[in-house]
Amino acid sequence: MTSVELGVFLPVGNGGWITSTTSPQLPATYEYNKAVTLLAEDMGFDFALSMAKWRGYGGPSQHWDVTLESLTAMSGLAEATSRIGVWGTVHTMIFHPAVVAKMVAVIDQISGGRFGLNLVAGSNPVDQGQMGLWRDLDHEGRYALAEEWITVAKRLWSEDRVDHDGRFFNLTDCMSNPKPKKAPPIICAGASDRGFRFTIQNCTGSFLLGSNRDDFVKTALRAKELSAEMGRDDFKTYGLFTIVPGETDRQAQERVDYFNSGVDVEALDNQTREYSSDPSLKQNTMANRFIAQGESRNSMSPAAIIGSPETIARKLADIVINGKLDGITVIVPDFIDDLKTIGIPVVEGLREFGVQTNAYQHQHGG
Prior knowledge:
Layout lengths: L1 E8 L20 H14 L3 E3 L20 H11 L4 E7 L5 H15 L3 E6 L4 H5 L9 H20 L3 E4 L4 E5 L11 E3 L4 H10 L2 E4 L4 H17 L6 E10 L3 H13 L3 H12 L8 H11 L9 E3 L1 H15 L3 E5 L5 H16 L2 E3 H6 L3
Parallel strand pairs: 1-2, 1-11, 1-12, 2-3, 3-4, 4-7, 7-8, 8-9, 9-10, 9-11
Antiparallel strand pairs: 5-6
Helix pairs in contact: 1-2, 1-12, 2-3, 3-5, 5-6, 6-7, 7-11, 9-10, 11-12
Organism: Acidisoma cellulosilyticum
GO molecular function, one term: alkanesulfonate monooxygenase activity
Keywords: Flavoprotein, FMN, Monooxygenase, Oxidoreductase
């Protein structure tokens, strides 16, 4: 039996993760995200993660034109919850590591040690450029900045005073108190070999995407291969899955067809244009995935898992087992009713296909 963690990627941007006028028009409000997180906690999910986004893509759906800021949202959710992990996202180009080091220490107190940090080394030039915070660095330079960033943050979590004279950051007799009781789990979604090596060396886990089943497994195994080479047997990999459930496979596909009938082409074109403006696009694996979605005029990830709870569980278990994943992170159209489907019948089905979750044990008294 393979054991995995189970998490939810919160819909902190309006419309959630489907770029369409006919999909559930989710509100980007704290109250909605609190309801989702409390539901996930009640079902035994291990963590809730929020993205960081500063500019939407417009179009008729006004996709992501309203977004919650990640760390303040997770700070509130830390107070509202008691068990589930609360993971927030920061762009290393935007926040100084000394600022985040103190923010993390405070959220560590609020959450009782349940906070996790997701690092983004790049994103797209327009999102951060609108604020004058985009740094014109190539692919290697972005990860060099991120390495310096996390090195400084970790020193501030463990040392009384820090002097640092680096390429990107300079600190003189810098003090940062309080300190977290322990360094938080740190994750990153870099998917190039350079991104994986940064993540394996500096973080505790990696978030993975795939364009289809085989690509998912290949990417996951590559991360494990590199972590073994670098002596990180404790390194975790989390698959990020868009899932559209239905009572039957046919009903689930009908939902997808309906969402695609209202695909917001204008928003997708804006998304494609923004990511295409990256001078290092060739090395930016995540950007190319967004561009591919836009070019295919698909309202959601082409790797979406669609079907009945049994079909979803079977397909998830296949990728988890063959890709040697340590965790599953889910995106769904409706984060209440659909999340209940994932948290109960899909979790039951996963166990039947050889994948155990803490959610199953939680619901069955384990």
